[in-house]
Design a protein that fits this description.
The chain is mainly β. It is built from three helices and twelve strands; from the N terminus they run αβββββββαββαβββ. The chain has an eight-stranded mixed β-sheet with strand order 4-3-10-6-7-8-9-5.
Length: 276
């Protein structure tokens, strides 16, 4: 058929919030209209905030792709509006891996205004060293928040399969989960995860013994996350012949910051057109 591109700037964000931002690319599902002259597409956006992430210490300082989970404690609620601090690696963070998660007391030298941040990996998937099934994002976050661990936030890094075996090294996946908003949670790409611990990025599928993965309990570099409110997902209308975007629809609450948390995910999921 062809390929559609998101317009820049995102027309809904510009019209509703006055911000000139690129679209996040949360395309989820689409359907033809009855006469095939239109396509209605949905953007399923699990977070109403745009995350900006930087590694702030070590040899790999700089900005990297990231996202914020929409069902956890918002970074915007912090008094200084930023999540920042030292990091430590804790494996996969699943119920099967709780013993691998070091306690937050392993992070020393915390500065004023900093948070204790645990880094875990998405999965496990295609990792011969971990033969249990992958666990949900909210399970990883709940284990990091447990009193016995005591972290303020968790970073969930994408795995090798999620990076397309290296084709998308910066792809960051923040999925849905049951609301357990006791700590903050963000997602980053697999490349940034390696650079955070000063290891060489590898993307082999399945994982190989020679991959330069950080050891459990490794102290990583310091990081900083800030966020900008950019609303939830919406519906797009495309020309069925050219695939050009010709219209959008969003409910008012999706771009009202008062509905950014505490009301569930105000994002569109799927659309169905009238068969007649």
């Amino acid at each position: 058929m062809g390929d559609s591109d998101y317009p820049f700037p995102d027309p809904v964000i510009l019209a509703r919030l006055g911000l000139s931002l690129s679209a996040e690319g949360n395309a989820h599902q689409a359907e033809w209209s009855y006469a095939n002259n239109f396509i209605l597409g949905t953007d399923e956006d699990f977070s109403p905030f745009r995350a900006e992430f930087r590694i702030t210490s070590g040899p790999n300082t700089g900005p990297y792709t990231a996202g914020e989970f929409g069902f956890t404690k918002p970074i915007a609620n912090l008094s200084d509006g930023k999540l920042n601090g030292p990091t430590i690696f804790g494996g996969y963070g699943c119920n099967d891996d709780i013993a691998d998660i070091p306690p937050a007391t392993a992070l020393s030298g915390l500065l004023t205004g900093e948070e204790k941040i645990l880094v875990v990996s998405r999965g496990p998937v295609q990792d011969p060293g971990h033969n249990h099934e992958a666990c949900r994002f909210d399970e990883k976050i709940a284990n990091a928040a447990a009193l016995s661990k005591g972290y303020d936030a968790v970073i969930i890094a994408n795995h090798h399969v999620g990076s397309g075996a290296g084709a998308e090294p910066d792809a960051a996946i923040c999925g849905s989960g049951d609301p357990r908003p006791t700590i903050m949670a963000v997602c980053i790409g697999h490349r940034a995860y390696h650079l955070l611990f000063n290891t060489t990025p590898h993307y082999s599928v399945p994982y190989a013994a020679t991959d330069d993965e950080p050891a459990l309990g490794t102290i990583g570099e310091r990081v900083q996350f800030t966020t900008t409110f950019d609303g939830w997902g919406y519906v797009r209308l495309l020309n069925g012949t050219t695939l050009a975007e010709i219209g959008e629809y969003a409910i008012p609450q999706a771009f009202d910051k008062n509905f950014a948390s505490g009301f569930g995910a105000l994002s569109v999921h799927e659309v169905a057109t009238d068969p007649d």
